Amino acid sequence: MIETNFRLSCTVNGEPIERLVQPARRLLDLLREDMDLTGTKPGCEAGRCGACMVLVDGQPMNACLMMAYQCEGRSVVTIEGLSGCGQRHASGSHPAESYADEPHPIQRAIVAEGGLQCGYCTPGIVISLAGLYNRTVAPSREQIEEALSGNLCRCTGYEGIIRAAMRASSHPDPTP
Amino acid sequence: MEWTGHSEHLTAAVGMTQVWRPDTTEEAWRLKRQYGTFASYVAGGTWLRTRWESGSSVLPPYLISLDKIAPLQAIQQLESEQEAVELRIGAAVTLAAIESHPLAGGAVPLLGKAVSAVAAPSVRRQATIGGNVMSRSGDLIPALLALDAVIVSYSQGQYERQPLAEWLAGDGGDCDKLTVGFELKQVGGSCWFRKIGRRETFTPSVITIACAYRADSTAGRLLDVRIAVGGAGMAPVRLYEAETAAESGASGASVYAAVRKGIPSVADDYASAAYRRMAAANVIAAELDRAASG
Ligand SMILES: Cc1cc2nc3c(=O)[nH]c(=O)nc-3n(C[C@H](O)[C@H](O)[C@H](O)COP(=O)(O)OP(=O)(O)OC[C@H]3O[C@@H](n4cnc5c(N)ncnc54)[C@H](O)[C@@H]3O)c2cc1C
Ligand code: FES
Ligand code: FES
């Protein structure tokens, strides 16, 4: 039962993963260094900035705080795996297939509303909002602000990001 | 510059750390007893992570994860003769689970408010109530103190129940002891929870205040007032004298004085002891005055 270099089994972006890893290795290092999924960004590395946000079982979690053993049996979705995942839309008028190769509606809304400048925080912001939209059809501004409360952006002043979040639920097609 | 991950010594330690994931309380405790200071219990690991990354403590060779011990993950209603709901919250229940549980965050509003004031939602999905209390600096402690919570721990084949206030007054004693959960009663009436600090979240608060009371609007009196405070570097305490002053209908100035007297004298680089006392007394006296005048 002791676990040194244990065999981690989970899914990453829908792909089943079986690999020998150090159990205390951070999910952030596993993704970026071992799997080359560099869309998940390191920032503060202590749970404060949200640059490293990933969906774990559909909910935003900080990849810098999670250790490999804590991912056992779970589904991890990174920013790379989000495109094509925009299955649900407020209007319900867009079947999942239509998003297969397209950016997620949140990503399209962020472009439409100018919700980014340098873009470093953007993968984390998109993941936090995608997690919100997984559980709330038409979130209020308050719910959006709460969902983004673990994400820091040094550039935008947040308004463009919040407009994008609103646009994703109010526009059947958030593309500019 | 290429990103090289966290510090070299931490990277090296990660390679040498073994993680045990026992299924029972007994097994977890045995492992801790066996490895002593070379091991650490880990629940969510969020508090430990900040310590390891800042270099305040080192990643030990053995981690004993509590994530597979079923009773530590449960929220249960206890059999009770009284009308008020009595709960046991497992030590490894996450703050997010407490927030959304109808018996916990829903039915015990003071706990619900305190939990929602910790970090951000993503951290709360990983952080646990046990880790918050065992850090001895968590924001949940004042709320649990105000609710007269009891801490349940396990050591050497024995379960022990102890009022949280008593546990806090001691030094924790046996450091291998495993905290199993917390028992608390639902209290009726109103409540509020405030963190006063340099930022809303992500920095330890200068002072954290939890308060519950019932208002008798016909008599213009407050009943069953419970006030507890904590904050960076300060041992959390109940403010019994201030509670009595508020219940007796004493003037705002008397409540103010009683609060000032009860706040432990602690200063750090950001807030003097006098500032802490004044800030706490201002907030508490003003809130109770508002509550009493309906
Ligand atoms: C970005 C960020 C923001 C934060 N903001 C806040 C905040 O606003 N307010 C706040 O209070 N805290 C905050 N914290 C600190 C921390 O997240 C919380 O206190 C959290 O509840 C700790 O729980 P955990 O399960 O992660 O603890 P862990 O890190 O797993 O453990 C903490 C300590 O408790 C011990 N322990 C854990 N469970 C047990 C048990 N059952 N028996 C015996 N010992 C045990 C561990 O050995 C360790 O010493 C923050 C942390 C981060 C990273
Ligand atoms: S890098 Fe994980 S929260 Fe900042
Ligand atoms: S766009 Fe630069 S940090 Fe957010």
Can you tell me about this structure?
The complex is a heterodimer of chains A (176) and B (294). Chain A is α+β, with helices and mostly antiparallel strands. Chain A folds into 2 domains: 6-97, Roll (Ubiquitin-like (UB roll)), CATH 3.10.20; 105-170, [2Fe-2S]-binding domain (DNA polymerase, domain 1, Orthogonal Bundle). Chain A has 6 helices and 5 strands, in the order ββαβββααααα. In chain A, strands 2-1-5-3-4 form a 5-stranded mixed sheet. The termini of chain A are far apart. Chain B is α+β, with helices and mostly antiparallel strands. Chain B folds into 3 domains: 9-65, 2-Layer Sandwich (Uridine Diphospho-n-acetylenolpyruvylglucosamine Reductase, domain 2); 70-186, Uridine Diphospho-n-acetylenolpyruvylglucosamine Reductase, domain 3; 190-293, CO dehydrogenase flavoprotein, C-terminal domain (Enolase-like, domain 1). Helices cover 37% and strands 25% of the residues of chain B. Chain B is built from 13 helices and 12 strands. Chain B has helices at residues 8-16, 25-35, 46-54, 95-100, 102-106, 109-116, 121-124, 129-134, 140-146, 164-169, 240-247, 252-262, 273-292; strands at residues 18-20, 39-42, 62-65, 75-78, 86-90, 150-155, 158-163, 178-185, 190-196, 207-216, 221-231, 234-238. Chain B is globular. The relative contact order of chain B is 0.10. Chains A and B meet through helix 1 and strand 4 of A and helix 1, strand 1, helix 3 and helix 7 of B. The structure holds flavin-adenine dinucleotide and FE2/S2 (inorganic) cluster (2 copies). One FE2/S2 (inorganic) cluster binds at residues 116-121, 153-156 of chain A. One FE2/S2 (inorganic) cluster is lined by residues 116-121, 153-156 of chain A.
